[in-house]
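User: Please fill in residues for this 460-position structure.
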C-alpha cells in the first residue's frame, strides 16, 4: 500500500516498483466493488429513514436525486482515477491541479468526515442492539455499545488490508441479499396511508428537498471508496471506475426500494420516533417480533462491516498526504499488514472522544448532528475533485482525452460540482458553521508542516 512519491523524490527502479505493486494491489474487481457497496450500505439504510421521516414523502424524491448525483460522482472519480491511479485519490486530485494547500484542505476535510462518520455509524448500531438486548434508555450502556462497535472493526484493520477486503466481501453479501429481499417483498405489504404528508416539515418543497438531501447524503458517502483506495486495486485505471459505478448503482437500487418499503410499512407518526426503523418495518410485514430481531442482527453486521471499511479509508487519506509531508510523518508509517496503524488509532480515538462528548444529548440527536457535519466535510473534497477535473479539461492536458468524450466529461464534472454545492447549502447554517471550524482548525497544522519542510528542502 504505497502512495506515489512526491515530485522531488526519485522514481523507484522498475523491479522495485513491480515488487511494490505486487504487494499493494490486493483488491480485485469484486473486492473493490464490495468496498464501495460495503461503505455505502451501512448505517444509512438502517438509521436514516427515521431521521428524514419528519420531512415526509419529499425525502423519497431526495433519495432519487441523490442516487443520480452519486452516480455522477462515481463517473467523476472513475475518470480522475485514470489520471492518478493511486491511494488517497480525493487528496491527490486537488493537489495535482492546484498545489499542496488545496490537497491538504481536501485531505483534512475528508479525514475529518471519515472519523466523524465513523462515530455516527457507531451510534447507529445502538438502536438495533436495543432490539436484540434492551438497553432501557441507559445512556451509559448505549455509549458502551457504540464504543464497542467502533473498536472491534479496528482489530480487523490491524490484521491487514487483505483481511479488510475479505471482511468487506462477506459483510456486503450478508447484508445485501436480505436487504434486497425485504425491499422487494416489503413492497407487497405497503399501505399508502402510512406515507403521511408529502411535505410534513412545513418548509417550502425546495427547502425540504435540500434539507432532507443533506441528511441523506450520509447514506451515499463511500461512493469514492475505490478511488481513495486505488493503490490497493489491481488495474485501477480500469477497475476503479467500474467498481465505483457498479457499487453505487447496486446500492442506489437497494436504497430506493428499501426506503419506499419502510415508509409504506411503518406509520409516519411511529417512524418519526423509531430507533430501529427497518426492524419495525419487518415486524409490520411479518407480524410479531421475530422478523425485526433477524433484521436487527443483519443491521449490526452491516454497520460493523461498514465501519471496517471506513476505518481503512480514514487511515489511507492522511497516509497519502503524509507521504508528501502535508500530514504528520507518523501517519505514513505502515505496519506488517499493510495498514497505516497510526491513522487507524487516530480515527478511532477521535471517534471515541466525539461519541463521549455528544452522547449526553441522546443517540438520536447525536446521530443527526454528526450526519450534518459529515455533509459539509464530505462535500469539500467532492467540490475540489470536480474542480480539478474541470481544470484539467479546461487546460487541455488531461491524458487520454478524446473529442467525443470531452463534452461528456465536462458535463459530469460540472454537474458533480453543482451537486456538491447544493448539498452544502442544504446542510444548514449550523452544520456549515461547525464544518468550517473543523476545516479551519487544520490550517495551523499545514502552516507548521510546510514551515518545517521548506528549510529542509532549501538545505538539501
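Assistant: Residues filled in for all 460 positions:
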Amino acid at each position: 500500500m504505497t502512495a506515489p512519491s512526491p515530485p522531488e523524490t526519485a522514481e523507484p527502479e522498475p523491479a522495485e516498483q513491480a515488487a511494490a505493486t505486487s504487494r499493494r494491489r490486493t483488491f480485485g474487481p469484486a473486492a473493490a466493488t464490495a468496498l464501495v457497496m460495503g461503505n455505502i450500505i451501512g448505517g444509512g439504510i438502517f438509521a436514516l429513514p427515521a431521521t428524514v421521516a419528519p420531512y415526509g414523502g419529499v425525502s423519497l424524491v431526495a433519495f432519487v436525486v441523490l442516487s443520480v448525483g452519486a452516480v455522477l460522482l462515481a463517473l467523476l472519480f472513475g475518470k480522475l482515477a485514470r489520471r492518478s491511479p493511486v491511494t488517497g485519490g480525493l487528496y491527490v486530485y486537488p493537489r495535482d491541479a492546484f498545489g499542496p494547500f488545496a490537497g491538504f484542505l481536501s485531505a483534512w476535510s475528508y479525514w475529518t468526515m471519515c472519523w466523524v462518520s465513523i462515530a455516527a455509524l457507531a451510534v447507529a448500531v445502538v438502536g438495533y442492539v436495543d432490539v436484540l438486548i434492551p438497553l432501557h434508555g441507559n445512556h451509559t450502556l448505549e455509549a458502551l455499545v457504540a464504543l464497542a462497535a467502533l473498536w472491534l472493526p479496528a482489530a480487523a484493520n490491524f490484521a491487514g488490508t487483505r483481511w479488510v477486503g475479505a471482511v468487506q466481501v462477506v459483510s456486503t453479501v450478508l447484508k445485501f441479499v436480505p436487504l434486497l429481499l425485504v425491499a422487494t417483498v416489503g413492497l407487497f405489504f405497503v399501505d399508502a396511508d402510512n406515507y403521511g404528508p408529502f411535505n410534513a416539515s412545513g418548509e417550502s418543497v425546495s427547502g425540504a428537498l435540500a434539507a432532507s438531501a443533506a441528511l441523506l447524503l450520509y447514506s451515499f458517502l463511500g461512493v469514492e471508496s475505490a478511488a481513495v483506495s486505488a493503490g490497493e486495486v489491481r488495474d485501477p485505471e480500469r477497475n476503479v471506475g467500474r467498481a465505483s459505478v457498479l457499487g453505487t448503482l447496486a446500492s442506489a437500487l437497494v436504497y430506493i426500494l428499501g426506503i419506499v418499503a419502510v415508509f409504506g410499512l411503518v406509520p409516519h407518526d411511529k417512524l418519526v420516533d423509531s430507533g430501529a426503523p427497518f426492524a419495525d418495518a419487518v415486524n409490520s410485514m411479518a407480524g410479531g417480533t421475530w422478523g425485526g430481531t433477524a433484521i436487527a442482527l443483519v443491521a449490526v453486521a452491516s454497520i460493523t462491516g461498514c465501519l471496517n471499511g471506513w476505518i481503512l479509508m480514514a487511515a489511507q487519506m492522511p497516509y497519502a498526504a503524509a507521504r508528501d509531508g502535508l500530514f504528520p510523518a507518523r501517519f505514513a508509517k505502515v505496519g506488517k499488514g499493510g495498514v497505516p496503524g497510526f491513522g487507524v488509532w487516530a480515527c478511532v480515538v477521535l471517534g471515541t472522544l466525539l461519541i463521549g462528548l455528544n452522547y449526553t444529548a441522546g443517540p438520536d440527536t447525536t446521530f443527526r448532528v454528526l450526519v450534518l457535519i459529515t455533509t459539509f466535510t464530505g462535500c469539500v473534497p467532492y467540490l475540489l475533485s470536480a474542480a480539478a477535473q474541470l481544470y484539467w479539461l479546461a487546460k487541455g492536458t488531461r491524458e487520454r482525452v478524446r473529442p467525443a468524450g470531452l463534452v461528456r466529461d465536462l458535463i459530469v464534472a460540472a454537474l458533480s460540482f453543482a451537486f456538491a454545492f447544493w448539498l452544502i447549502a442544504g446542510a444548514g447554517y449550523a452544520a456549515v458553521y461547525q464544518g468550517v471550524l473543523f476545516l479551519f482548525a487544520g490550517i495551523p497544522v499545514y502552516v507548521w508542516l510546510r514551515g518545517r519542510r521548506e528549510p529542509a528542502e532549501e538545505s538539501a
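For context: Residues 290-323 form the longest helix (34 residues).
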